[in-house]
Structures are given as structure tokens and as C-alpha cells.
Amino acid sequence: MAALKGGDKLEAALREIAQKVSKPGTLRVGFLEGATYPDGTSVALVAASNEFGTKRIPPRPFFRNMIAAKSDEWAPAIGQLLPQNGYDAPKVLALAGDAIKGQLQQSIRDTNSPPLSPVTIEKKGFDKPLIETAHMIMSVGAEVK
What we know:
By secondary structure, this protein is mainly α. Helix content is 56%, strand content 6%.
């Protein structure tokens, strides 16, 4: 049977990693509290109206589609980021949050279905759904608490 030397060092190193990784933290990505349009309208309300639709606006599920397409990548990415960042969980969550924020912004840019109505295109002057002033896309936030 093989003997393991330095077991105390290994145990201490694992304990240190466990302490770093176990720091509490919650990552939130999306349209966070306080994000408003200049007129005071909540960006989250406008985003939800676009995501789920209203009586006058068809659903354009940019958020759900991004989660469905990208969420399988998040855990492996965090797994790679942890050792690269000294197992600093809050730092890794912040890095992951920035990446997911970018994915959400890209999903907003990429959403083009259903197309805008001809009346809306004429009013806006272009045919890109979800982007009128770019305020919503610029309001995507990420935070670690």
C-alpha cells in the first residue's frame, strides 16, 4: 500500500480552499432595482413587457432564450474560473456575472422575431425589435451580494 506524506499540508490546503469557496454570495443578472428610463418607467417593467408580451406587443423572449441557450456553460466556466482566481468565490461570481450580462445584451441585439409591424418600423425608422433608444440593453446589470 502506498503511503501519503504531507497529509497535513494537503488537509490545510483543502481547508483553505473550502473557506474561500464557502464565502456566501449570490449573483444577480438582469434589470436590477433602480434601473429606470428618464421618465421614471422601470426598465424591468419594459423588459418584462417585451419578454412576455402585452395586448399590443407580441412576446420576444430574449431572456428565456438566452438562459436556455447559455446556462449549461455557466457551471463549467465557474469551475475553470475558481482555480484561476485563487478560489475567491465573490470575484469568480462577479466575473461570471459580467459574462452572463454580455450574453443577455447579445440576446437582446440578436432577437429579431417576431418582426416589428410595418407601422412600428415606419415610426422608429428601422426594423430592430427590442432596441429603440438602447436604454434597455445598457441597463442590464450584474451584482454579487
